Structures are given as C-alpha cells and as structure tokens.
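Hi support team,

I submitted a single chain yesterday and got back a structure, but I'm not sure I'm reading the token output correctly. Could someone confirm the output below corresponds to the sequence I sent? I've pasted both exactly as they appear in my results page.

Thanks,
R.
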Amino acid sequence: MKDSQKLSALRKKAMSLPLQPGVYLMKNAAGEIIYIGKAKALRNRVSQYFGSDTGHGDKVRRMVEQVDTFSYLVADSEFEALVLECSLIKQHKPKYNILLKDDKGYRYIRVSPPPFSRITEVKQMAEDGAKYIGPFMSSYNIRQALEEVSGIYQLATCRHSFKEGKSICRPCLNAHIGRCCAPCSGKIGANAYAERVEGAIEFLTKGGTKTLSLLQQRMQDASDNLEFEKAARLRDRITAIRRLNERQKVVMSSVEEQDVIALAAGNGKGCFEVFRFIGGALQESEHFFIDQPDDLPAARAEFVRRYYTLRDRVPPQVTVDGDMEDTELLERWLTDKRGKRVHLIRPQIGEQAHLVDMCRQNAAERIAHQVGMTGRDTTALEELKTLLGLSDPPLYIECYDISHTAGENAVAGMVVFKNGRPLKSSYRRFQIKYTPGGDDYGAMREVISRRLQEYRNADNHDAGFGKKPDLILLDGGEGQVSAVKPIVESAGLTIPVFGLVKDDRHRTRAISADGGEIEIHSKRTVFTLLATIQEEVHRFAITYHRQKRRKNTVSTTLLKIPGVGPTRAKALLRQFGSVKAVGDATLEQLLLVKGMTRPAAEQILRFFAEN
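Hi R., thanks for writing in. Yes, this is the structure output for that exact sequence:
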C-alpha cells in the first residue's frame, strides 16, 4: 500500500481542485498516464481516490498504489468533459482504463472484373480493377453468405478460366446438383453470367427482401412473355432465398437497426458481448474481455464510450442489460456522433429483454470457455448474485442439512459447489455432539460454529475447512437463517446466509432470507442450480444418518450377547461384515476372530439359535 505521507500529499492536492467539470490524468513515477477519468466536480471525484480505500475495488487500489501525481483539465460542462475524456483515452491508451483491442481484422468481398467475375473473400482491398464490398467483421459470416449466394445464383466456385461459347472441361458435381450454371461447358454467355453476378451483389449489399421483390417482378414478366424456362429459373432462386431468410430468422428483432450490449462477470473476468442488428436480423457479434469490474454501471458506461470511439457506425438504438452511469450524457454524445437521435434503453420485459438475456448468455459462455465452466453454470451464478443482491457471483457455495429420526442419531451434511458444480472432495459430515435430539436450530448452530472454528484454526485458506465460502445455504426456512446469522457475525466474518425452502412435496420452492422469502420459479437457470444443491445436501446428510443408525442398531444387537463387549462386537463386524453373517458363522469360524474365546463363541451360537 502506498505510504500514508504520499497519500496525504495527493489528497491535499486533490482538495485544492476546483468544483468544476473536467478530466483528470493519473500518472506514475515515470510520468506515464495510467488512468484518465472525467468528473462532474473535480475536487470531489479525485479526492475520493486518496481517502479511505474501503470502498475501492482491487483494480482501483492497484491503480492508486502506482499514482505518483496527477494533472487535470477543466471543461465548460460535463458533456465537454466526456468528449475530452474519450479523445484523451484514444490518444494515450492508459493501462487502467477499459481498452478494447480492435484487432479482430476486417474482411472484404471481392468481385473480380468481367467477364465471368468471381466473388471471393479477401483480407485487404487492392487497386486491381476489382469491386470491393465491406468491410465486415466476421469472416465466418462472409463465407456463409458467399456459399449461400453462390448456390442461389449458381455461380462458379472453381478455379477454371472461362471463355465465351467454348467448352473447357466437363461440368463438375456442383453443376449436376444445381449449384453451378456450368460456364465451363460454354453453354452460358458472359452477359447471362454477369446478370447472375449482379443479382448476387445486390443480394449481398441490399439484403434478401429487396432482391426477392425484384426477382418476383422479373419472374412475372418472364411468365407474361411466355418465357417459362426463365420464369422457372427465377422461381427456383426465389425459393432458395426464402429458405435462406427462414434460417436467418432464428434471431430477429422488431427494431430495424440496433446494437445490444450485455456484460457477464465472474472468476476474475468480465466480458462484454455486442449483437448488431441490421434490417431486424442479427448480422454480427463481437466480444471483449476485461478485468472483472468492481462497479457494473460505471463499467457499462466506460465500455460504451470506448466501443463507439472505435466505431464510426452508431445505430439509432443501443440496448443495454443493466444500470449505467451517465445515460443522458452518453445519449447526447452518441446522438452528436451519429448526427441523428440515438436512444439508450434498458428493457425489462418482452422481445428486447429476451435479446439482452441471449446476449448476456453468450458473454457468460465466453468467460466459461476461458475458465473451464459451462455457460449455463456462469449464467446461473450471475442470476443468483442478482437475486440475492451479492456483490459478486458466489463461486464457492456451502450448503448444510440436519438429518435424524425422532431426534436419534442426529447428523449433518455439508456439500460444496464450486463454479456451479459439486466439489465432492470438500464434502464434510458432522455428528451432533452437544445439542439435544430434535433441536434442529440448535444442531445447525452447533455445526456452523464448529465449521467456522475450523476455518479460524486452518493454516491453509485455499481448500477444505480453510476456504471461506462466498455463500452459506441452509436446508430450512427463515428460522434456520435467523439462528445461524448471529453465529457468522460473531465470528467476525462477512458471509451471506440464506435458506432453501421446500414445498409440501419436498421440492425447492424459494430462498429464505431475514425478511421473508424470495421466489425463484421464474428464474429457471438459478432454480435448477438451487434445486440440485438442495437435493444433493439432503442425499448426503440422510445417507450418513442411515449409516450411523444402521451401525448403532447392529452394535446394539451384538452387545446383547453375554461375553460380547464393544471391542469384540467391532472385531466380529470387521471379520464378517454384518450381523447376519455373524449369526451364520460356525464355531470354528468364530474362534478365528481376534480376541475370541470358546465360551464367548458358544454364547454367540446360542444367542442366534434362540433368536
């Protein structure tokens, strides 16, 4: 941590700043700019960095530790400060700002000069007389589009050179299956082929809808002129385009043009996903990884500023997945950049909310792929974080259940879920030692007290009882939660505690908190996770309880035999495995048991003969 004398000097300097909008530039000892931010009131914002660090996240603390000095620029308004901030960040690229690496590489569609033009994908434009369409972000999407359009308009995809009216080779398989008009056979002229190329270009640049209308008109004209062969070819193209459009309608939006932006965070990482809709259809998607953000509304606002600083295209609507700082300022900035009105919206229900959820799930999948989790697990933990009002997704969850029969043989089970999956190596079992039978609240208090004592005594805080859980779940309602929370608080630990409530069919119904219950049926992904956890802890606890009850029952049976005490009963079970096997044993077999005497063996035979 930076020494207090340096912090004091920086705070004193910050307190001398004006209460005006502006931009501040944090610099390290080498004079490098490591962070640029904007402020509505410079003094208030900058001084926050050099006071108490209790409200700072890890990233801010690391940045403050490196600050040697700072400078500032006063602006006439907060909007002017925002514009200035964007410009300076683009110029200096400070390490602690969200910096989006725009290195994905653009692609172009190249249309070679006639006759018999070829349509291909290339990385760069060249001055070679060809026509170029683009740029596009997704190479995969371009390849898919070219494959479809080549099939619809029956364009050649081979490397042969064609000549008007001259056969150069036998038609290939593509010609036989109707995907190529076979210019290699010499049966199609350059003008007819150029017409197909023009149709393909129009399809790629204007979209299927306009092309469809044009083809339908041309088909009707051909039919009216009794050119039935030509009309049939046009009909086949129309059918192909309609089939393609049906496939593209998997992800559609009623908003003609918009960007959907969603953030997923967890496992130390954050990921922004961007869906770009044009003509109501999903055309492109991009994703950007960042460090896990401490402040989600601030992170969303900063991402929007960085993203549209890099992009010339600004859509009329930008849809985001959560609260965001400076919404009005950003709307004004985007409107100014676009030259027309731009709306920033956060949908709650309906189609747009569904698109946001889909976008967020994709972002979660990106993180999951990097850290070895499934996207479903990441989404469930994100939903659980939001549902319970936690600051971070609970990656390490412990769940407890008490099991007994009318207060007898009381035990508890603890299961652990790490990254949304069972971590069986960390499961633990407890015998209830100090609590009277039937007192479930007291039993749970005992178990949690013993568990937290193990945490305090542990040397290694990375695994087992030495690992502090992100969340404690109890199989029970509000009473269990109220009984356990004081135990956690008295231990000086900040661990959220909630209960899992079952319905009358013993199925997970809700989450129990201090102030009541939180319904979870509408949150399908998190509901599945919590139901799985509750079923697993119940299975684990009741299995242990049955083992203990069976063992006690067995021991009680053998202890009824004269001459058989606890040590001899244990030796018999170790030798034969069950009470039934002991009863079936012969005198010779019983005498082989360690510590067994003939009188005791005879008593065992007599006992089982009589019973």
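A quick pointer for reading it: The chain has five domains: 4-92, 107-248, 257-372, 388-549, 560-610. Let us know if anything else looks off.

Best,
Support desk
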